[in-house]
Amino acid sequence: MEECACRRDHDHNHASFCYQNGGRCKQCRAWRAERYKSQRAYVKRQRLLAGIDILVPSGPTVRKLRALACMGWGAAEIGARTGYHHRILTRMRSGSRTQTTVSVARTIDRTHRELATHRHDTREGRITTTRARANGWIGPAEYDDIEEGIAE
């Protein structure tokens, strides 16, 4: 077990003092890590409330784009509705982007709610559906909770 190099009267609640004086014990490091995590969460929340875009995991957005592809909605059609370039949506749908901004996630969520019950039944839509099913993607009706990725 690691020996604490802190002063004897140090209660490990002021790790900055402990760290400056060479005390890098397990308790002080844990305190600093927890404090750093809570500060980051606070800053993130404040940025979101101020309307500044922050990065979030893109998993739910990817699942929604893939589910729409199973319904025949390609990146070009979704891009025309959302205002995003189809290449950005294609890259996101492929799963190569692990994060996205809150504004993109909200826009895709809104579009998913509008289009998830309508099949895009054109020649391009049928091609998109075939490719999506070949990739193993599942449609919106096959999810219990698309936000969590839980399929039936």
Which descriptors would you attach to this protein?
7 helices, elongated, two-stranded antiparallel sheet, 152 residues, mainly alpha, single chain
Please sum up the structure shown.
With 152 residues, the chain is mainly α. The chain has helices at 15-20, 26-49, 59-70, 75-82, 86-94, 102-115, 123-134, and strands at 55-57, 99-101, 143-145, 150-151.
Word description of this protein:
- There is one protein chain.
- This protein is elongated.
- The chain starts with 14 loop residues before the first helix and ends with a strand.
- The protein has helices spanning 15-20, 26-49, 59-70, 75-82, 86-94, 102-115, 123-134, and strands at 55-57, 99-101, 143-145, 150-151.
- The strands form 2 sheets. A two-stranded antiparallel ribbon has the order 1-2. Strands 3-4 form a two-stranded antiparallel ribbon.
- The mean pLDDT is 84.
- It is built from 7 helices and 4 strands.
- By secondary structure, the chain is mainly alpha-helical.
- Helix 3 packs parallel to helix 6 (102-115) and helix 4 (75-82) crosses helix 5.
Unreliable segments of 5+ consecutive residues: none
Radius of gyration, CA atoms, in whole angstroms: 23 Å
**What is the approximate shape?**
elongated
Oligomer: single chain
With strands numbered from the N-terminus, the spatial order across the biggest sheet is 1-2
Beta percentage is: 5-15%
Helix content: 55-70%
- Number of DSSP E strands: 4
Profile the largest sheet. Answer: 2 strands, antiparallel
Number of helices: 7
Helix and strand content put the structural class at mainly alpha
